[in-house]
Predict the structure of Membrane protein.
Amino acid sequence: MRFLTQRKRFSDLSEQEIIALAISSEEDDARIYRGYAENLRADFPATAKLFEGMAAEEDQHRGRLLALHESRFGPVVPLIRREHVAGYYNRRPVWLVQNLGIERIREEAEAMEREAERFYTHAAARTTDTATRKLLGDLAAAEAGHQATASELEAEHLDGDTRAREDATAHRQFVLTWVQPGLAGLMDGSVSTLAPIFATAFATQDTWTTFLVGVAASVGAGISMGFTEAISDDGELSGRGSPLKRGIASGVMTAVGGLGHAMPYLIPHFWTATAIAFCIVFVELWAIAWIQNRYMETPFFRAALQVVLGGALVLAAGILIGSG
């Protein structure tokens, strides 16, 4: 089936191409680690130093591979990269990983080392030259030992207090970028749509009409809240993070909050749909109180009283208006 792809199979690579692939991979990994370091430097300087140390290790590996290639094949290294080899492991772009939490980035680095170890182990088995086999075996062992190196670097740059500060910074950024806008959206979607949905329900007792009003109110509120959050603050001065992320969190959770008690009105029987909608409203309001307690450190019963009381007042207003 090789005619279906232009990429080479690993088993078809020559020894020179294997070494060239290793050289380009080490260069890419060093650049990835330096990219992590640069993106983390402002908020997580100790972890940035850790990745700089790992990048320096990759540079040393690349230098040894270049010396081997020059001694065997000369100074001109063939251009072969990961994407040229079928089945070869890929790296996630830095601009994708940088949006993940700091622990997830550390896990990504550990996975990179494991994949590199497997590559060198297989590459060593594919070579016949003694010096090449030895170097590739040494590099496989080095990649396996990188976890120990990473631990040493972590011990050097990430003492208990430093790591605690970085973890606290990461948690604060998560709350500011995702939790606060999402919570505001959920509260708005869950509470503000109660009046129009239940007013329509009790005024018409038509479940399909109620469903359409609920969907329109929820989606409209989601779009409005999303755009408002995104354009109100670019995050530069406030430190609240990407406006796109905040807009998505706010808009999606606003829509979800309203759709939760609109969906039961797909059921044709009015009182069955309304009873289920009441239950969903109860769950939504308690979920909001739990999130406030979990992430905003608001005492649970105070949060529950505020949210449930506010929601109950809006719900009662909708029912009274619809019944009148």
Summary: The domain at 2-158 is CATH 1.20.1260.10 (Ferritin). The two ends are 72 Å apart (CA to CA). Residues 160-192 form the longest helix (33 residues). The chain has a mean pLDDT of 81.
